[in-house]
Amino acid sequence: MSATFHPTDELLVAYGAGSLDEASALLVATHLALCPRCRAEVARIETLGGAMIEDLPPADLGADALASVLARLDLPPSPPKPRRPAVGSPGLPAPLRDYLPAEMEALPWKRLAAGIEQVVLLQARGIRARLLRIGAGIAVPEHGHGGMELTMVLQGGFADQGQGYARGDVAMADRQLVHSPVADRSETCLCLAVTDAPLKLTGLVGLLVNPFLDL
After folding, report:
1. Chain-centre distance of CA 105, in angstroms?
2. Does domain 101-212 match CATH 2.60.120.10?
3. CB count, 10 Å around CB of 183?
4. Which residue ranges does the chain devote to CATH 2.60.120.10?
5. Are 32 and 38 in contact, with CB atoms under 8 Å apart?
């Protein structure tokens, strides 16, 4: 089944240009693995970008350009980045599997609320990517956002603001949105979420527990 809700054109352009942060790029790459439409759009963006570069006039090189290149050739090669062992999670798209240090059930899941768990996959410069696992029929406590949030469904689905999101769909939230998504009753909902600021639970309970929650 094809996705109904997709990353914005701005996100796809930034991904094609290689200018997205790592967490957001991971979410877009995971979506592309499931969405032929967006894969075709990113391919078009990359082709257009390549054509624009070819049309640029040649730039004059500085007098020390050759010496700089030769000096770099004398440097020892950078050590390869360690690659995590392949994890057997066949239901997950390949870009996401590369970020998992272990099988799904062996991941260090942390309880956030009744029926809701998370695993942080990466965090840099305040931008975080995490897996969220929400039990069937469970409502996420009402919350607002300190910034932007991207949520992609990997398994199951959820309802939010009158819309239903299924596998491959991407939901976007900003500072203006206060909501309480509800996982479908049919099965556990697994999502990849990217945030650039903490979430904030609403009401008196939120005031009491927000300082202690890792949201």
Report:
1. 20
2. yes
3. 26
4. 101-212
5. yes
What is the per-residue pLDDT across 43-75, written as a single tens digit (0 to 9) for each? Answer: 999 998 654 454 446 555 565 655 654 555 554
User: What tokens appear for 44 in the block?
Assistant: 């078009």
Whole-angstrom Cα distance, residue 174 to residue 154?
A: 21
pTM for this prediction: 0.80
| Alpha-carbon torsion (201, 205, 210, 215), positive or negative | negative
**CATH code 1.10.10.1320 region(s) in the chain:** 9-73
Shortest CA distance to 120 belongs to which of 112, 174, 129? 129
- Reported as a single tens digit per residue, the pLDDT across 140-151 is 988 898 899 999
- Helix or strand holding residue 72 (H, E): helix 65-73
The CATH code belonging to domain 9-73 is 1.10.10.1320
